[in-house]
Amino acid sequence: MVAKENKYTCSDLGQEEIIKAIRENGVERVVVASCSPRLHEPTFRKCIQQAGLNPYLMQMVNIREQCSWVHSHEKEKATEKAEDLVRMGVSKAARLQPLEAREVPVEPSSLVIGGGVAGIQAALDLANMGFKVYLVETQPSIGGKMAQLDKTFPTGDCAICILAPKMVELSRHPNITLLSYSDVEEVKGYIGSYDVKIRKKTRFVHEDKCVGCGLCAEACPVKVDNEFDLGFGQRKAIYVQFPQAVPLKYTIDKEHCLHFKTGKCQLCAKACTNKAIDHKMQDEILTLKVGTIIVATGYEPYVPAKKGIYKYWEYDDVITALELERLLNASGPTGGHLVRPSDGSTPKRVAFIQCVGSRNKKIGNNYCSRVCCMYAIKNAQIIMEHEPDTEIAIYYNDIRAFGKGFEELYHRVREDYRVEFIRGRPAKLRLDPKTKYIKIRAEETLLNRITEREFDLVVLSTGLVPSEGSKKIGKILSLTVSPDGFFMEAHPKLRPVDTAIDGIYLAGCAQSPKDIPDSVAQAKAAASSAAAPMFSKRVAIEPLTALVNEDLCLGCGLCVEICPYGAPELVQGQKGGMKAHVIEALCHGCGTCAASCPQKAIAPFQFTDDQVYSEIESALMETSRKHPAKKKVEEGVS
Amino acid sequence: MDEVEKVFIGGLHEKLTEEKVIDESQLDPGFTDEIYKYGGRDVMTCLQCGNCTGVCPISLKIDYKTRNIIKCCQFGLKKFTLGTQWVCATCYRCYEHCPADLNPAEVMIALRHIAVREGLVPPFVRTAAGNLLKYGQSVKPDAETTKIRHELGLETIHSQDSDYHEVIREIQVLIHATKYDKLIGIGEETKL
Fold first, then answer.
1. Which one of A465, A542, A636, B47 counts the least CB within 10 Å of its CB?
2. CA–CA dist A169, A171 (Å, integer)
3. CA distance readout (Å), A327 to A226, A316, A322, B131
4. Residue B146 within any structural domain of the chain
5. DSSP E strands: which ranges in A253-328?
6. CA distance B46 to chain A (A)
7. For A395-409, what is each residue's pLDDT tens digit?
């Protein structure tokens, strides 16, 4: 037994000491009592492997994150706990078995889920590196939320003008298969070989025959609110979402189509010169095999509460920021002319209310949505450019202009356009019944006065919340989420695009709210992370899987039912009878089976009953520190 | 006008600046903990958005800013806050709207507890406490009320305290046992 103390055991010097102890003193097991294994387990495994030991004969004891950091107010007790933890680690280390890491081949193809700007960028980058990419988008067209925006901050580029070329490039890329209007239904497997089941929802239009001429939509008699314009404009029951849609293929909205309601109509099919429309088409199920997955499922704008104080559902002239984007957009329902929804007049006084649905503990959205300050400032600028005599006030709590060129835009809007910034969260909105103008009452906190001002139009700067699609995909892939509901990255600083599951990466607003530059940057990072295992063609997989003791197994099949990954199966045992067998590639070593097995016949490596019980015993062992009286006696004797 | 002259016509007294600058000696570092101890939530969660002031029915009428008081609490400016909290009607509207999930009304109640323990009891509170002690109810029609009622042509309210002697007695015992009378400074009147 060799015990060494070191300030930074993870440093080269510290590792040297471990190697020296193994070589010179014949150490067979190593216990490192330091930080979380998530941080340095790989470091120390490599270190003892270098010295000739099996890398799995090392036990890390976390006395930092799970001990000293969380018990910083109780130093004595924390030290006691650290001693217990070390004793547990030592007793477990004595029972560790040598294991061999397995290597698996990596399929040189990637699945990108979500066709917003992040998904598009990640797909393009991977395709340009030479990998096969499948991009799945649930909507009829790719483009995501960025396609709905008017201009982008801080430069004022037209959103669709800079996005459309990428969308077209993607659809024409030989390495990319675009699966629009499709949903991921099931994902099985592990890094290097994921089996993916995709439902390609039917458009009732043959994509290979449709040329996007629009004759069908002209013929269609059904008009419905256009979701893309957030209900401001209208579309037909056979439609493309927007003129720049990719792919430019028409889709029948089954819910509103007259044919599906009455069994008649079919005017679109008659109008189509290419015979592309077929009301009898069915959904298709595709199966793919991919090596890596990038999740770019994006966000949804927060929907103001039904009886909230900002009266979104009561007053026509209270709109959300995304609705404003559509009203300002040249291809939007008003052709880019800002109007009051109530009477169609041009608003002369516009108020923005910040932090609606963000930074609010009452509704559980504690986080800052990061984009609202800047899009409000940007939209104020656009309104001023359209109608220079507009008065604009922005009710804010804190202005966060943190990105490149953001602060400059903030100053420009204040100085050149005379936009008024009011620090205070409005308390009350009131509609003047005669004039139909909206009065906002708020404490202007920097003035220390309550004011009431009148506006023609009120824009709620709504925050970003995880999309419904994200929640679905999160369940399918078993991804972990942060308290804010967005997907959790493997490490907030050093592994910002990885998930806890090898081979699955995050890009864009699925991970947290972010602006377009950040989404694109993260997409590029995710693409490069996903490319690494695909370039090296093989990856090592942790051998910490469950193992069945056939002598004890009764073949009850409980583990088969309970396993979240579908790893155990029942097979004919060597000595007869049905026995459980674990498909190692699917097993994540979570231990659910071990906890449920009535026979204790199944256990994951490194967490066998023997090892766990030995840890418990050492945790409960009586020590001199726990019994001061005993300590005194001992001291007296010595 | 005098002060302006003093500043601009050369007679600048140190006193003038001295009074307006808040320095550490005027701060009370443990103030937030004290508020917490008396039932207020953690005032440090306040983001100073001002929503509470905007919805406060009192703030609309008098120079009282809920947000400002919370700021003073955060800062530890005890002497700026004690005295203002009595106007709060504890309608809890501020709580309903607070995005930080703080409850300013509870903070005001905590501030009242603190003020009373520091001996800062405004006369109307002492009157109400005295009423509670004498009649078993804090609001009691007094001479002033009777006068106003007469002016409005309403008759005098006749108290029926005598019917509830037992109950009032119980209240008095409780007040005495909990030393509430001493806290409020009405100990003299409760000789049992």
1. A636
2. 6
3. 13, 14, 9, 63
4. yes
5. 284-290, 292-295, 299-301, 318-320
6. 11
7. 999 999 999 999 999
Residue B13 falls inside a structural domain: no
Q: Is the pLDDT of residue A628 over 80?
A: no
Q: Are A270 and A397 in the same domain?
A: no
Residue-wise pLDDT tens digits, B142-170: 788 889 999 999 988 777 666 778 888 89
Preferred mutation among A397, A428, A443 to probe B, highest tally of B CBs within 10 A: A443
Q: Are residues A309 and A440 in the same domain?
A: yes
Quickly count helices (H) and strands (E) in chain B.
Answer: 12, 0
**Contact flag A397-B98 (C-beta cutoff 8 Å):** no
Most A CBs within 10 Å, among B46, B51, B66, B94, to test the A interface: B51
Same domain for A196 and A121: yes
Q: Are residues B106 and B144 in the same domain?
A: no
DSSP H helices, A289-396, are 321-328, 372-386
> What is the rounded distance in angstroms from the CA atom of residue A101 to the CA atom of residue A55?
9
In a domain, B71, yes or no: yes
β-strand partners of A428: A441
- A360 touches B: beta carbon within 8 Å: yes
pTM: 0.86
| Residue of A350, A373, A372, A353 whose CA lies nearest to A419 | A350
Q: With CB atoms and an 8 Å threshold, state whether A442 touches B50.
A: yes
For residues A414 and A480, membership in a common domain is answered with no
Which CATH number goes with the domain that contains A599?
3.30.70.20
Statement: residue B8 has pLDDT above 80: no
Mean pLDDT of chain B: 84
A242 and A341, same domain (yes or no): no
One domain, residues B73 and B87: yes
* A450 touching chain B per CB within 8 A: yes
User: Which stretch of DSSP H or E encloses residue B15?
Assistant: helix B14-20
Q: What is the pLDDT of residue A63?
A: 94
In which residue are the tokens 């800052």 written?
A: A368
Is residue B160 domain-resident? yes
Residues B102 and B172 in one domain: no
Q: Which residue in chain A has the smallest CA separation from B59? A: A450
Residue scoring higher pLDDT (A636 or A625): A625
User: How many structural domains is chain B composed of?
Assistant: 2
Task: Output helix, strand, coil percentages for chain B, rounded to the nearest 5.
Answer: 60, 0, 40
Among residues A511, A480, A476, which one has the least CA distance to residue A111? A476
The pLDDT of B48-70, averaged and rounded, is 91
The answer as to whether A631 is a domain residue is yes
Q: Is B68 touching A (CB cutoff 8 A)?
A: yes
Q: Do A397 and B97 touch (CB under 8 A)?
A: no
Among B117, B145, B175, the domain boundary falls at B117
- Which residues form the domain of B47? 24-117
Q: Do A118 and A95 fall within a single domain?
A: no
Backbone angles phi, psi at A5, to 5 degrees: -115, 140
User: What's the pLDDT band for A566 if we cut at 50, 70, 90?
Assistant: confident
Same domain, B82 and B34: yes
Closest CA to B148 of B157, B159, B160, B135: B157
Q: Does any domain span residue A126?
A: yes
Q: Tokens 């003193």 label which residue?
A: A25
Closest chain B C-alpha to A359 CA, distance in angstroms: 7
Contact A361 B45 (CB under 8 A): yes
Cα-Cα-Cα-Cα dihedral of A395, A401, A406, A409, to 10°? Answer: 30
Nearest residue in chain B measured CA to CA from A422:
B49
Give the ipTM of the model, two decimals please: 0.80
Looking at the structure of chain A, the number of domains it has is 4
B93 and B57 share one domain:
yes
The domain in which residue A585 lies consists of 546-604
